[in-house]
Amino acid sequence: MLDILDGARERLARASDPVPCAVATIVSAQGSVPRPVGTSMLVGADGALRGSLSGGCVEGAVLEACREAIETGRSSLRSFGFSEEDAFAVGLMCGGSLEVLIQPFAPPPPGTQSPLGTVSDPSPAAYVTRLPQESDAPPAAAPGGDDADGPRAVLLAGDGAEEVRGALTMLLPPELLEAGSAQVAAMLREARTGTLRLPAGASTIDLFVESRIRPAHLVVCGANAFGQALVEAARPLGLRITLCDHRPAFTDPTAFPGAEVVRAWPHRFLAAAAERGDLDARSMVCVLTHDPKVDVPVLATALRLDIAYVGAMGSRRSDHDRRTALREAGVDEEALSRLRSPIGLDLGAESPAEVAIAILAEILAVRAERRTVEPLRDGSGPLHARTAASG
Predict the structure, then answer these.
(1) How far apart are CA 338 and CA 294, in angstroms?
(2) In this structure, what DSSP letter does residue 150 have?
(3) Domain residue spans in the chain?
């Protein structure tokens, strides 16, 4: 839901012509599936589409379910899986299964707040939905897709205990509030997305909790053709991107759309960023400067930080000389073993655009903890990570 939240808000908030919409969200997945839990697809009553759940396998059926939800104002859960018995059944050809929540949202009456908040609201830490169940009474068509007995979803802008508890009073009965709030708060702190099942007498109440944390930080050192290509290639990955170079003549922000451009010595910028908490264990640093007086200080700084990836461009000879200089600068062998240099996977890349792809391919492999990379056709394991159905 959070990935298309702004688009849904925009349609509901149009002053002259607000548009009802429905959002389909993957709330659980089993086996090999193309997209993770939390992925959403927006369908507007005006025919607008945004997002994708499976890359095409189930989109047609989801589209019809969303149109039905817009007409009835009723939420529902739909299941999609591979069927060997019925070759024409809607399902995932990859063999996995999905459970999809369909939620309608209607423009709120004048003077009331949208169920998705306002466009000026801060980015939420989580979107929490009470999943519909067969035992639920059929809801009346109400603004925002709320059931007749009250709202079915809340936005959270923080993970504080009191804030979570206050928000969940709209979704949970009093006897489940304490336990539910504690478990939702724990999911937010750990940035987990999934379904939380709470026992309620002979049945259960299921909450789908979708968490959002700030994007991972990619720092690109070097305002040159390779830095420009890497910034461009990395933009679709949803990263926070910073381009850092100490030379004012090369750091025109318009040359690096999608990146924060910083004019500073990279090692000083990196140290300051770490000090203020702008780097974490998911962060990545790519040094593309080809200049020892820049490379050595920034790599020495980066290799002392707890970050996911440190790479540097250069020939094998320059890599040898650079490692020698780093040892002389006090970088120990354990830290030096984390250096990805020469940077990137061996894809035969030559042009800046090709090198950018090789670098990002290596970053993805490191994040997935793949020590070796081979063509998918030569493997035998699942193509997609196994995903738990509930939290």
Answers:
(1) 19
(2) B
(3) 1-109, 122-133+152-213, 217-368
Whole-angstrom distance, CA of residue 254 vs CA of residue 247: 15
Give the end-to-end CA distance of the chain in Å, rounded to a whole number. Answer: 17
Instruction: Tell me how far apart the alpha carbons of residues 59 and 55 are, in angstroms, rounded to a whole number.
Output: 8
DSSP 8-state class, residue 236:
G
Nearest to 387 by CA among 38, 51, 102, 55: 38
Dist CA 244 CA 222 (whole Å): 6
Q: What is residue 99's predicted lDDT score, i.e. its pLDDT? A: 87
Q: How many residues does the chain have?
A: 391
CATH architecture classification, 217-368: 3-Layer(aba) Sandwich (3.40)
Confidence at residue 90, expressed as pLDDT on a 0 to 100 scale: 47
55 band by pLDDT with thresholds 50, 70 and 90: low
Look at residue 142 in the predicted model and tell me its pLDDT. 34
3-state SS, residue 366: helix
Tell me the whole-structure pTM to 2 decimals.
0.69
Any alpha helices (H) in the chain, and if so which ranges? 5-12, 59-72, 161-168, 174-189, 225-234, 266-275, 292-302, 316-328, 333-336, 352-367
pLDDT band at 137 (very low <50, low <70, confident <90, very high): very low
**Do 321 and 346 touch, CB atoms closer than 8 A?**
no
pLDDT for 385:
57
Residues 6+ apart with CB under 8 A from 53: 24, 26, 35, 39, 40, 41, 59, 62, 98, 100
Token pair in block for residue 133: 């169940």
What letter does residue 147 receive in the DSSP assignment? B
Which of 248, 231, 249 has its CA nearest to residue 240? Answer: 231
The tokens of 240 are what? 């926070």
Give 309-354 as a DSSP string.
Answer: EEEE---HHHHHHHHHHHHHTT--HHHHTTEE-S-S--S---SHHH
Q: CA nearest 280: which of 200, 215, 337? A: 215
